[in-house]
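=== RUN LOG ===
request id: a7f3
mode: sequence -> structure
chains: 1
length: 176
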Amino acid sequence: MTELWVFGYGSLMWRPGFPFAAQAPGLLKGAHRALCVYSVYYRGTKEQPGLVLGLDRGGACRGVAFRVTPGAEDETIAYLREREQVTAVYVETYRNVRLVDGSGRTVKALTYLADPTHPQYAGRLSLGEQLRIVRACRGQAGANIEYVLNTVRHLEEEGVHDAVLSKLAARLTGEV
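=== RESULT ===
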């Protein structure tokens, strides 16, 4: 197998869960980070779905590209499918990711895009609707509000400012 790269745009950025030999900031064009997926498992339930990140159509997304440790490619793909495809709401694909590390290099990275045809696809929700859902929901991995606030904190630590998520986090913590 050739080099396997994985693009992380949410929790995969700080908790990849697979062995990697290198990582670099990356830019994916053609999709943007958004709370556009109803979570019926990790951050909500079937009765009360929460919201989690997906890569939605259009725009661009700053994230982290990981080069998987040679020899761990098959186990990494199996792990990611188990983690990301619990309900098959994401489309597993390979996309070009430009490394933003000064190398000018572009890699083909395994990427999980939100599937707009899946029943769990939330699409673009108003800030008020996102607030209502995130405040109320909890799933097997914990409270939805913790997920959003943790995401924003980690994105900022990585030097990534997501204006929409930051605005939501400010409302969730009463800073606005």
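=== NOTES ===
The chain has a mean pLDDT of 95.
The CA atoms of residues 87 and 149 lie 24 Å apart.
=== END ===
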